[in-house]
Amino acid sequence: MRQRPSGRSRHRRVRDAAALLVGLLVAGALYGLLAPRPQTADARSDPALLEQGRQLYATSCITCHGQNLQGVESRALSLIGVGDAAVYFQVSSGRMPLARQQAQARRKPPLPQFDPGTAEGQENLRALGAYVQAAGGGPRVPEARGGALVGDDASRGGQLFRLNCSSCHNFTGRGGALLDGKYAPTLEEASPVQVYTAMLSGPQAMPRFSDRQLAPEEKRDIIAYVLAVRGERNNVGGFGLGEVGPTAEGLTAFLVGLAALVLVTAWIGARS
Hints:
Its main location: membrane. It is a multi-pass membrane protein. It catalyses: a quinol + 2 Fe(III)-[cytochrome c](out) = a quinone + 2 Fe(II)-[cytochrome c](out) + 2 H(+)(out). InterPro entries: bc1_cytC-su, Cyt_c-like_dom, Cytochrome_c_Oxidase_Subunit. It is an enzyme of class 7 (translocase). There is one protein chain. The chain is mainly α. The chain has two domains: 42-141, Cytochrome Bc1 Complex, Chain D, domain 2, CATH 1.10.760.10; 142-232, Cytochrome Bc1 Complex, Chain D, domain 2 (Orthogonal Bundle). Helices cover 50% and strands 1% of the residues. It has a two-stranded antiparallel sheet with strand order 1-2.
């Protein structure tokens, strides 16, 4: 005969189920409070600004990136999720629209209507970015511009730059070659907002640095370092050799010395 569960057993099961339910509710509440909010499309933008951005997109971007920002195969990738940070970096630096298909977009003068040095260019960049942001979401352009994006601690910025950036851009931001025809561009001409948006959007072979990986104040300190070493020529005691890093002169001396040793050895062998 099947034994019925006792009252104490039923009470224990109810208690365990209630505890599990409470635990799930608490875990869900904590996740909702602590988890990063997804960068979704922003539908609160000015309708007139969005319409302006849509028209600019239709005349400058739609051929390669498609009518719905989904991209066109063999032409360009989707813009869903890139945010207006990527739009600002790519368009203000002249990398987009792309001049021709190649391994990496090269910096060139921007189109006149997107020149960040003019009021019209700034307005058009904001409109195009707002349209892409509203349609696909993604990292946002910082509200601060110019000197407000330059940190106060260039020394700490140098440490962060050497840790996160120097392996590609070398120690003073002069750039360098990568694989498959790609390269890390020089930072000589990049404005503070272009450096900031590049860190947010991760163009070409560059990784993205979210605010959880590099805090906003750390990004600003990196910009302070980039500006501090821009144009410097710290070549005391020798040649700079392109300023590609502190080992350049030692490596050159080693290779020249090795070649000289080989030549001397060959000369001695020939005489004997």
